[in-house]
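Exercise 7. Given the components listed, write out the predicted structure of the assembled complex. Treat all entries as one system.
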Amino acid sequence: MRAFLAGARMQLRFFRAYPDGLIPFFTAPMFSIIFQMNFRHAGRQDLTAYAAIAPVFIALWWLALFNSGWTITTERWNGTIEMLVAAPSSFAANIFGRITTTTLVGVVSFVETWGVARLIFGTKVTIHHVWPFLATVVVTLAAMAGTAVAMAALFVLARNATTFSNSASFPFYVLGGILVPVSVLPHWIQPLSSAVFLSWSADLLRAALRPTPMHDFAFRLGMVAFLGACGLAVGTWSMRVILVRVRGSGELGTT
Amino acid sequence: MRNLVSNARVAWYAILSGANDYWAIFTLKSWIFGWCVRMISQVSFFALIGKLLRSDLQTEFLLVGNAVVIAAAAATFAMFMTTSERGNGTLSLLLASPSRPVVVFAARGVYVMADGVFSALLGLFILGPAFGLHFPFPRILLVIPLTLLVGTSAYCFSTFLAGVILRYREITGLVVNATIVTLMALCGVNVPVSFYPTWLGWISRCLPITNGLEAIRDVINGSPWSSIAAHTGAELLVASVWLSLALATFGRFMRAGQRDGSLEYAS
Amino acid sequence: MAAVQAVEIEEIRRVFTPRKRDPVTALDGVSLTIPVGEVHGLLGPNGAGKTTLVKILSTVLLPTDGRALVYGHDVVTETKAVRPLIGIVFGGERGLYTRLTARQNLEYWGALYRLSGAEIKERSAMLLERVGLTDRADQRVEEYSRGMKQRLHLARGLMGDARVLFLDEPTTGMDPLAAREFRTLIGELKGEGRTILLTTHDMVEAETVCDRVTLIDRGRILATETPRTLGSLISRFQRIDIDGGADRLIADIELIPGVSSVAVQPDGSTRIEVNEEGTTAVVLKQLVDAGVTSVKTSLPSLEEVYVQMIGERGLTV
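Answer.
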């Protein structure tokens, strides 16, 4: 637990020390403005609520990809990974603490996105189904953290991590239907989207903003949870592989 | 004359060095499956809004705008190359050399910008047909030099910004990303300039991309040559102004950095 | 019942198998025992296996064969018991969070060493004071000089109140004054009953700070002795310095079997080097008989032992 908290506190310090970690908090409001403009220009005020959801996903995914994803790798480059392994506390708990903090901080983007939409465009976002909305947010955050753990671990093990992380933003925004629902995508892509928890989550959040009743809530939420748990499982397993490689082959100790 | 030749030589070597750095990061495979996939997804992401709105006009508007902006985004990323000089510790060597640092800085990222222009055109000509757009041939070929102009204009702007943030290397990533998204919002990429309030419209026209993009839209829409020429001229002017600003201020930023020692840290 | 040793290494082997290259044997059957409270030097050229050995002892790397114990606990199977006992001080620029302050760095590691909030504050303040960094404690590490970073490394290694400290080339790149202060610190730590394993290139350091020195090269231990004894190990390589000396005498000395060289030094003195047992006595007798009164003999320094035993490798790795 102490390792988890130590990691969490460290991550907050890193946000201050490494300004690049704050990029999503600058881009989220700008994306909010862009999407609001798109829909207003087209005269579709009914879609402006969609516009308020997408930037949050962009921010959270960015944090997962670029902040969390690089956690372990930057420890390697910094020369601190071996000392982390040698410390009495759990290496995994430390990393989990850092990733969880990053994800939770991402919630700020909700405030930014909705604030900007309200201040500049007068868009008011009404949550028609409050508890389902909140439940979806919580489960989404957990799934995001789980996926981030998988990214953090896989980036260390994979050889093309840099390329993947640089490219894996927009493809997932499209597949995840975070702005344009998956139903608008070509049919051949739609099955792929089901494997991305973002698509289930985005659909649920949009549904919660509509006055019409929500269908199959439990099942859809369950899918978000399930896919997030898969990410966590992959991440945990990969973390073990990493520790073996640091200690066993000495491969990961130095860059 | 000798100055010009020597500057040109410096610029050429800087371009080669920048290109080398670039291909150290990318292999052909990672360029295709990494960068290209991302680029295509990004343009598609916005073009799909048009599909959501069930409007072919919107689809075209968004697709063209967001494809062209790829060129500008790449040009802005080139800012990273200038600040990496500081990180590598080669900045002090550069300062001590007889050449003007701004020439090196301006030239190093050219390759990245050229790659961005190529990618933008690739996106336009692959995704256009895929989304059901019809481009007028041979008029559409004009888009090639115009996209190059937009990329160059954005590059001049980013060179100026690189000088501004030279002493504050730690915020480079922040500035680059914030700049790109801001340009996407303010330069008529997703909505026409007429949608902005008047004062914002003026600001927009002083930024790179805006006028050049309108010229490109003119080409695709079949607008008269006078309109294309006017917008092209405006973009050329904007590019020149930002370039002049960059050349004029870079030296001053460097000297300030030398005075307060902020250029030193290779971290 | 035998006293627990601080470190026991039994026939440790470590082979690395890098991708697409031949396997590299970094350690080839190394055995060593370090009693509690000793400052033990590990001296060897680059690639000798020093860092690999330290990594194994600090539970960061697994040995291919053999066994190592820290305070009786196996470094492979009993990491939970070993880790609270050890502190690692790797030298150099890496291993610190440079955009954080010294204090923040120490607080982080304190938490990872399971100290309570109060203990963390107290100990980090105490250690910063001890290594002389209190005044700069709240400055970013990236602004520190090399020597300061090194001192912070040491403070970091001590946050867990380690009984056994592993210092990997801690004074590399330090100026002589800073290095001397660092060595004083090490002396203090020894006085507190801590055991220290120090890897170094620096002969002066090994000679002044260490109780015993192990020479290691290419993964094998060549010798383990006190610094003085190592010198006398190859005492046949003695040298004799005399003032002046007639040409005739010099010529005669050169002919004595066991004399390897006779050379005039820049200051006018003559240096006679011998490389066989008993030759010194013969040379001395000849000198005294010739009426030479100003005679000085010396044992080779650790550096010379090092060079002789490890060979004239020079800059090759």
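Discussion: Residues 2-259 of chain B form one domain. The interface with chain A takes residues 25-26, 30, 33-35, 37-38, 41-42, 44-45, 48-49, 51-53, 55, 58, 62, 170-174, 177-178, 181-182, 184-185, 190-192, 195 of chain B (CB under 8 Å).
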